Amino acid sequence: MAKNLPVKASTQDHLDIEDIIDNLVLQKDGTVALILETTALNFGLLSEPEQDAVIYSYAALLNSLTFPVQILIRSKKSDISDYLEKLNEAERAQTNRDLQSQIKNYREFIAATVQKNEVLEKKFYLIIPFSILQVGAKGTMVSFSKKQKGAFFSKKYILEQAKNELVPKRDHLLKQLSRIGLKSHQLENHELIELLYDIYNPQEVGLQKITQEAGSYTAPIVGPSIVGQDEVQKPPVVTQPEVIEQPIADETITQPTLPVQTVPPAPELQTQPIAEPASIPQESVAQPAQNQNQKIVLDELQAAVAKANSLLAKQGKN
User: Fold this and answer.
1) Cβ(71)–Cβ(124) under 8 Å?
2) Interval 47-63 mean pLDDT
3) Which of 54, 127, 229, 285 is deepest in the core (most CB within 10 A)?
4) Distance, CA of 151 to CA of 140 (rounded, Å)
5) What is the pLDDT of residues 133-163, one digit of tens each?
6) Overall pTM > 0.70
7) DSSP state letter for 211
8) How many CB atoms lie within 10 A of CB 32?
9) Which residues touch 165 (CB under 8 Å, ≥6 apart)?
10) Residue by residue, what is the 3-state secondary structure of 120-153?
11) Euclidean distance between CA atoms 171 and 42, whole angstroms
């Protein structure tokens, strides 16, 4: 068996980034960077008093800075694949047909808009740098190689000094940005990896999902995880196993008989004769007003019928 040849060079050797630890970017020259991501503010939609307040707050931020700050604005093509997938899930989970149809029309509208027009999104970053020269280092005394002889600063020592310098500056910037009305936060390890990957691979944005585990990027050589069109792996052909027909023996299959539970008959109900109500003399019962009205109407109707019969009899005689 051929022995594995030692790794002589890799892409990481040509990058300025040494490592990403504790939400900080460590470069090979000993420089450390802390990156903040902040939101934007539409200045044109604000009223005149609001614009004046924003200008004064921004002026106060600039006057309070005693350390260098880098401002980075990145414009890239928007990736809405995750958003479309969420719409598909919402459409499948919706039981109301009308709402389901509205979600489908909205999803198709978004997909058509992105296909026809190039939708860009902007992100804003503030970078706070730290140099090992700030702690009194002189010359090139930074080395991360264990083979190098002599005194040099270790990675752990540089990160400790960087945290002592960058954390107060970060808190100060977050406070000043909140006065303007901007929401900011420090990028974590997986967010820094994704940002740097997008910067070094702008053409692959949206084609590959970045894992949140930083340990998978510390190998000597990172293998390509994007397969080209010529290298598309064909799915394996799944062959169905042969079905061997076996004769069925002439045996009667007897199904197990389930025990039938006998329900006891319901007990006979003893019927008792209903006692007839005692006869009440009519003289002691007061007739309601409704019966009296019906009697009066009946008497009037009988009188009218008798009168009509007498008139008819007279006409017959004439």
Assistant:
1) yes
2) 93
3) 54
4) 11
5) 877 655 445 555 555 554 467 888 889 999 9
6) no
7) P
8) 23
9) 130, 134
10) EEEEEEEEEEECHHHHCCCCCCECCCCCCCCCCE
11) 24
